[in-house]
Write a structure and sequence with these properties.
single chain; Lipocalin; mainly beta; 10 strands
C-alpha cells in the first residue's frame, strides 16, 4: 500500500470513529420548556409557554460544532394562564393552530462562541413559513444525571442546555395586530437514546 493510500485509509477510519462517537439525545417532556415573551403596548412584558415539545440532539462532545438539533412544538399547546388570550393566540388571527399544528426547528450550523456556548443557526417553520433564525445556546450539563442514583429513569447520559433568540412574528405572517418582536427562551434536558 502506498503512503498516500495509507493516509487516505487512516483519514477514513478517523472520520468513521468520530462519527461513531456522536450520541443521539431525546428531550425529556417533563423538563423541556419553550417560553415566549412580548411587549404589551409598551406597558409591560407578558409571557406564555408551549407545553408540548419534542426534539433530538445529535452531539459528539469532542466535536460540538458538528452537533445538530431538531424540535417540534405543538402550536395548540400555547398556554399563558389566561384562557381568552390562549384561545386568541391559537386562532386564525395569530398561530392558526388548526391549519398549522406544528412549529418546527432544524439546525443548519453550529458556531462555537465559548467553552460551553454556541450560536445555533437553523430553519424555523411557523405558520407555514420558513425563516432562518439564530439561537444563543449554553450547555448546562453533559454526563450522568445527578438524580440517576435515586431514580432509574434518570440513569444513563444526559445533556441539558438553555437557548435564547428573537423573531418578528410578522416575518412569518402571524398576527393581524403588530405585537413587535418575540423573545424566545428554551430550557431542556435530553436523555441519551441508548
Amino acid at each position: 500500500m502506498t503512503q498516500s493510500r495509507l493516509l487516505c485509509s487512516l483519514a477514513v477510519l478517523a472520520a468513521t470513529a468520530g462519527a461513531a462517537a456522536a450520541e443521539t439525545y431525546n428531550t425529556d417532556p417533563g423538563h423541556t420548556e419553550v417560553r415566549v415573551g412580548w411587549n404589551h403596548a409598551g406597558v409591560s412584558m407578558q409571557h406564555g409557554e408551549f407545553t408540548t415539545v419534542s426534539g433530538t440532539l445529535d452531539l459528539d462532545p469532542e466535536r460540538p460544532e458538528t452537533a445538530s438539533v431538531t424540535a417540534t412544538i405543538a402550536a395548540g399547546s400555547f398556554f399563558s394562564g389566561v384562557e381568552a388570550l390562549d384561545q386568541h393566540a391559537k386562532s386564525p388571527d395569530f398561530l392558526d393552530a388548526d391549519t398549522f399544528p406544528d412549529i418546527t426547528f432544524a439546525s443548519t450550523a453550529v458556531k462555537l462562541t465559548g467553552k460551553d456556548t454556541a450560536e445555533v443557526t437553523g430553519n424555523l417553520t411557523l405558520h407555514g413559513v420558513t425563516k432562518q433564525v439564530v439561537l444563543a445556546a449554553h450547555l448546562t450539563h453533559l454526563g450522568a444525571h445527578p438524580v440517576g442514583q435515586f431514580f432509574d429513569y434518570y440513569k444513563g447520559d444526559w445533556v441539558a442546555f438553555s437557548a435564547k433568540g428573537e423573531i418578528d412574528p410578522a416575518d412569518f405572517g402571524v398576527g393581524s395586530i403588530p405585537v413587535g418582536r418575540l423573545n424566545i427562551s428554551i430550557d431542556t434536558e435530553l436523555k441519551a437514546a441508548n
